[in-house]
Amino acid sequence: MEDLLLGIDIGTSACKVAVFRQNGTVAAQSNAVYQVDCPHAGWAQQNPDEWWEAVCRAIRDLEQQGVNLARVVGIGVDGQSWSAIPLDADGKVLCPTPIWMDTRSAPQCAEMIERCGAEVLFASGGNPVQPMYTMPKVLWYQENLPDVYRAADKILQSNSFIVFRLTGVVSQDPSQGYGWSCYDMRRGVWDRELCRQAGIEPGLLPDIVPCHAPVGNVTAQAAALTGLRIGTPVVAGGLDAACGTLGAGVVQAGQTQEQGGQAGGMSLCMDTCRMDPALILGAHVVPDLWLLQGGTVGGGGAMNWFEREFGAEERALARKNGTNSFVELDRQAERIPAGSEGMVFLPYLAGERSPIWNAQAKGVFYGASFATGRTHFARAVMEGVAYSLRHNLEVAEKAGAKAGVLRAMGGAANSRLWTQIKADVTGKTIEVPSSDTTTALGAAILAGMGTGVYESFAQAVERTVQVRRVHMPNPENKSVYDARYAEYRSLYERLKPLMKGDSVQ
Asked: What is the rounded distance in angstroms from the CA atom of residue 477 to the CA atom of residue 475?
């Protein structure tokens, strides 16, 4: 019987686990949900132990589906960015971790810049200091939870925490290093002196392990909780966006992944380390490659919000037609012409990341009239997210990193309309891979590389990634979208002075 690979994806609202055959097809998959706690303005935190409990439930469900977990020969884990999980010497989680949406550490960013200098921090980590990143969150612990900071032995990321629970080994992969300004992006090593200068004990930094390299093996304790075979190899894994980029087949310079998950954005593959302060630079999970990323808050989450608050009619239609509410929203929005007849949406529902980096940015609908219907708003949401994608791509091109064909991933890629809108707005051809589990697939490919299932990343992609749809830009819509995009850019600049006050993240 064929050996299997397991990919574990630690998302914002749920974990997804999937068992893959060596050709990339899914043998079985399962999800388990957990909550985001937002006790104060600007806070968004989770309990990592709840991730682990969800992973255990989901893997057990695979067994219930008839998967022989003994056939799994390698495990890869990907996870959301910019966690800061404090573990004591016994492996106990000391407090909830702020997640990628959390901006509480803005004062600590200012402290880092004062101590080290913005130019020095950028030259090392390749990114301006931001409150969402890991390093200022650790300083926040130091100042606000001193007992936690003193008791901490190591700070882990989301994927490395699950790897630790599986193997008992602490690690740090290169693709998650970008949350640390003391991670030398060019050389792929810790700058421990810069860490000390920022005021953080370098001993908190785990050893760096290549994303596809085995970290350890499933322990007896983990096997008892999950049903996995004792001794199954586990690789370091990586950032969810980077693993999704691999799972979409992006392994060469110029290839670009377009992300349509809870958050949106793009990851442009480069073989040189190009830094731009408006974008996010990270190491790819593939060695000797980097990803210039544009991460926007208003991705699929913007449409999830719209459906939740205004989609009662579509939910009723879905029950009647045996579909789902998002299919019905697509059908409704497709009746609205390109440009939403003057309606423009700024998708800044929880502030915004790249390229504007404004935690106080607000979501805005502009252009309503008596002729505007609810469906105009739905299409405007899709177009607004597409405008944010175009904005990031344009900034990347100015930095010298030009995107070619885009590879779509995430739930939004299931929408033919939305994907076509993105192609029309950006002027880029978009290919949609056949797998709707690209992120977990990327993690599984890493496991396959680490265990010798695949000889190279190129071979792995050739064997596992197939394109199911291609969306070519429609030139008839170009002039309309060019005009609306210019309006989108102008709206933010004009409204920016009004976007003040506490962040709603």
From this structure: 5
